Amino acid sequence: MKPAHILLVGWATEISFSALRESVPSSLYEITELSISCTASDQEVERISEIVAGWSPELLLLFLSGDSVVETATVFFGLACTNKWSMPIVVVCPTAKPNDVVELLRLGASEVVINPSRLEEVIPRLSTVQACAEEDSPVAQLRTALGLEHIIGESPAFLALIKQIPPIAKHDVCLLMLGETGTGKEVFARAVHYCSPRSCKPFIPVNCGAIPVDLLENEFFGHESGAFTSANSSRRGVIKEADGGTLFLDEVDCLPPSAQVKLLRFLQDGQFRPLGSVSVCTADVRIIAASNVNFTEAVESGQFRKDLYYRLNVVSLKLPPLREREDDIVLLARYFLAKFTVKFSVRVRELSPAALQKLVYYTWPGNVRELENVIQRAVVLAEQAIIQPEDIFTGDPKSKLENETFRQLKAKAIDQFEQSYIRRLLLVYNGNITKAAQSAGKDRRAFWELMRKHHITAQSSSSLKQQARS
Known about the structure:
CATH superfamily of the largest domain: P-loop containing nucleotide triphosphate hydrolases
Distance between the termini: 86 Å
Helix content: 40-55%
CATH topology of the largest domain: Rossmann fold
Radius of gyration: 30 Å
Number of domains: 4
């Protein structure tokens, strides 16, 4: 049996590895040693990348020491993410707080060994880690089996969606995907297609909102030669192109009434007539539609046909916005960071904790697509190896929370509540401070002090009420 290759990286540590090397059975493991200074120069980082690329080690041991264990590990795991290393990484450090261990595991460590009495004690852990590495987590197995490695997320709401893909893909029914812009509806539509029996046939995406109204019928059903003045040859529409496969209709709510009628007819019997043709054609197509509108309102207003809605909505998936997937923001940010550092061949290693905090606090109205663009911009424009908060541009002047403590944020939330509560009470009681104070369960002086604190007057509240009436 070929021995497993271990890359042993001593990062800012004075530990001697001779005892470890002597205790390792050469028949089981080969060891390559590398020592890295605290500052980790570009040359040293490049050396790590070269060794991993050249030797492809099965295991990687990272020895850390000092007070900045997590900070050093963050740089290292950023390098691992950027270079897409897949081997298990075991972190060994003399001391570490419980919170540090949790953070090291979150960063990607397969195991953390704290203060081993002898370095030889590390070796028995390696066989366990190797065995576990051969059996991925259930989520990873599911993603691999379905070919969904690029669908990134670990939040409960997101994993619940992934688990719905196999049964939906298995049954050949219409699927309606709902969710805000940028939540990844097309990504999930592709996943359903490639997990279905139709995977060997085409997946044809169509943005219904981008097709001029007078060209819709031609785009969907095609035409015969001579059907109109410029039709010098026949052309297949997207329905025929998707024959046997899947047609993904994004922004399906943008279809005009005439196109909705013709799409409904096709869904009923699978037949259509190209422009200028005297014969009826057929196509075996699975329809996956997507929209970011409220279909209940669209149907009630007459914007969308009720019968077509029922045809499309045999099964539906609602994708959560990124603000409801807070656990995935850091995961996605690091994924995009790795993606764009490779694409643009830059030396950005990691996002600083303050930059990550800024990303987590932002509400992401543009969802995953906006996050991807923000990280792409940061990678292109960052002047340092580690992305800082000032490199994260969200276009929101109010998103300056990265340096605020828990106490500061709590005080701000209390201030906002007090101002809103006081103004509403004064509106209800038409500026009568005594009655407002009684309703709040406070004496008049205490209530007045709150008004003075927030620069609220009874007159201003009364004028607001008058404006509301007018």
